[in-house]
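Appendix B, record 7
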Amino acid sequence: MVKATRKSLEEIVESVGSFSRVLNVGCGGCVSVCLAGGQQEVTELNAELRVHFKRKKEFKTVEGFTVERQCNLQFYLGLDELVESADCLLSMACGAGTQLLAERYPDKPVFPAVDTVFIGIDRAPGWYEEKCRACGECVLAYTGGICPVTRCAKGLFNGPCGGTNEGKCEVGREIPCAWYDIYVRLKEQNRLECLLSIKPRMQWKNQSQRTLIQRGFEKRYAK
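Structure tokens (predicted):
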């Protein structure tokens, strides 16, 4: 599932600029599950914006509305009337939802209120781990269900580099070597022949596997 995190209040305030009537549109999908852009987060952000504008003596109205899926126009019913009376829109959906919102209402400026981070899993409330880069050429069938694109610091497709050491990556001793884990899992499944299937090289960037801990959960998961 897509994971996202809210932008800073300062960046959001700068986005809406001189617009007087702001409509903040949330999404009940992925961003709601990862506590970044659902109804609760819309309510919290709107409260922060109202306090900020009151302190600055700026006369702005901030309204909120959450659709079930912002990436699907079928769930936009009921939104048209609210959008008509707004000067600009904030989107608390992922990048896909934000773009569809902008496409649906091309005469209204649409500003993202969250940053889309990665596709990942839930480790615990507020703690998420990247598992997929959506590369479009999935090789999990050959790697024991472990993604070398996401897990390997170099995105290697055909085995470990010379920097692997006792199951750890040369990038850092706390980082497991993806290809060591792949080997162990395939061996346990009696499928080591999968390692003999050579895959063509591909170009990848930003290969360090990422995690996301939402604001307010930092102390809970502090090491």
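Remarks on this record: The radius of gyration is 22 Å. The chain is about 25% helix and 25% strand.
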